[in-house]
Model the fold of this input.
Amino acid sequence: MHHILLGMIEGWRQRRALRSLVERTPATARLLDLSPDEFGRQGIAALALDFDGVLAPHGADRPLPEMENWLRRAVAVCGAERVFVLSNRPFGPRVDWFRDQLPGVRFISGVRKKPYGDGLYKTGELASVPLSAILMVDDRLLTGCLAAIRAGCVPFYVRSPYVALRSSPRQELFFMLLRWAERQAVRLLP
Done:
């Protein structure tokens, strides 16, 4: 529960940066909008990717097919040793899929939940890159995007996350409402 309180407190402190992120991010923004071929020119050397909403709908065991192709391109550009998944579920079939399909891509585990920056600090350490060269991709403002801002990483806000309303309506509606509330809060705060 400490991470929720931290998100609210630090969200207030970083409200201008979060508001700017929302304002400059198109409502349709997805990870597929980023070209791994551009990372070098943008100073990006490592990736920290949220899973739920970013690579697949909540609770999925593997990335969606279009994300599989994107991940393969990202690994070709960055190297598998510099691509990380920073998720609240770093276990089970997800880890198995990456081990089998994209060996070398690692899940960050054993760290405090976002918006604590622990996962990003560990990413920088394991990838041997400065924090400013890490792209953190998340569909939540007050978790991954806030962690990126606080740690000095580059945030990418997925405003159009993957959802599966038919298979998980309660869970997906909860997260849809949460994302909407986060956007409203950062827009309305002075």
About this structure: The longest helix spans residues 169-188. The beta strands are 46-49, 83-85, 106-107, 134-138, 154-157. The first strand starts at residue 46 and ends at 49.
